[in-house]
């Protein structure tokens, strides 16, 4: 008896199975607006229980990568509406991942008037691709003022309302992988001396205020969060208090009542492993749905579901390369291999042309 393929619930939603499609940036949103090609891509993958969209910016300031979508303009809401209708028509539920890139970005990728912002004026190591000039070092962010913080929290709340208007079942706050929310959590990128920096009670404040604002806007049943404890991507080094900091966050997010926490462990791609003790701590502390992700196949997902380690499992590259992943695993069919050369290139190649099994 498979748990993975059995129906379940997420808050007040029914899911057709326990497979979640991971958020996957694909950089096909020309002009930052969802288009027909994206409708087709998500519809192809709608045999999942839950789709979490690619990182989608709540603000012009959060569009640090080229060709990523937003959810702050009317055209973006209209584009996403077509995606959610197509996905719902095929049975999946869909959350939009709200990704503000913060200091990971370059002005060449931003619309006129937008700014690269961060908790502090500390640039992230590493480079950012720009369509105009190729690779550039990540920009030096402007340290957010109190007004910037208030305005950015308001942008998240508006984006959450826009998400509901676009037909999404909810939003996932991107608190992982070195983007704005994690930049506030981590001490290397957050060197503030006001109420948003210093002790974890302060470094967690921005994330918790964003969560509260989203919950006030659309309700706790529609707000989840992704976290990457022990993640080092985008210049987020390990530090001594990491485990204690995330234990504090887990308690606060539980009290806030979010519908899920989605943990990602990047160890399958060579990054530090999330210790089992940390996953267990989240499981014990957080009373609602826990999603685990990172390097899963169907067998490992069944094992973790059966052991009660999580409620749902999210798959990234497997869904990217297999529009009919659910059917392939149900029938034991082989999988298509993902092609990293087309992960972020515009157009249908390596996007909507991965073959499905013949009917
Ligand atoms: C092409 C690509 C784009 C990604 N974009 C995002 C993103 O927008 N937001 C996010 O939280 N994670 C992103 N990730 C990480 C995935 O969600 C996932 O955690 C990772 O691929 C590990 O899971 P897997 O082993 O099942 O692929 C991306 C990964 C890949 C390969």
Characterize the structure shown.
The strands form 4 sheets. The chain has an 8-stranded parallel barrel with strand order 3-4-5-10-11-12-13-14, surrounded by 4 helices. The chain has a two-stranded antiparallel ribbon with strand order 1-2. Strand 7 (127-130) and strand 8 form a beta hairpin. Helix content is 32%, strand content 16%. It has 359 residues and is an alpha/beta fold. The chain has a single domain (8-342), classed as TIM Barrel. The protein is built from 11 helices and 14 strands. Residues 22-25, 54-55, 97, 99, 174, 176-177, 226, 264, 268, 293-296, 315-318, 343 line the site of flavin mononucleotide. Residues 22-25, 54-55, 97, 99, 174, 176-177, 226, 264, 268, 293-296, 315-318, 343 line the site of flavin mononucleotide (FMN).
Mean pLDDT: 98
Q: How many β strands by DSSP? A: 14
Q: What is the CATH homology-level superfamily? A: Aldolase class I
What is the global morphology?
globular
What is the radius of gyration computed over CA atoms, rounded to a whole number of angstroms? 19 Å
* Bound small-molecule species: flavin mononucleotide
What fold name stands as the CATH topology? TIM Barrel
Helix content: 25-40%
Poorly predicted spans = none
- How are the strands of the biggest sheet laid out side by side? 3-4-5-10-11-12-13-14
Question: What order do the helices and strands follow?
Answer: EEEHEHEEEEEHEHHHEHEHEHEHH
The assigned CATH architecture is Alpha-Beta Barrel
**SS-based class:** alpha/beta
Helix count equals 11
Query: Cα distance, first to last residue?
Result: 25 Å
Count of distinct structural domains: 1
* Strand composition percent: 15-25%
Specify the CATH class: Alpha Beta
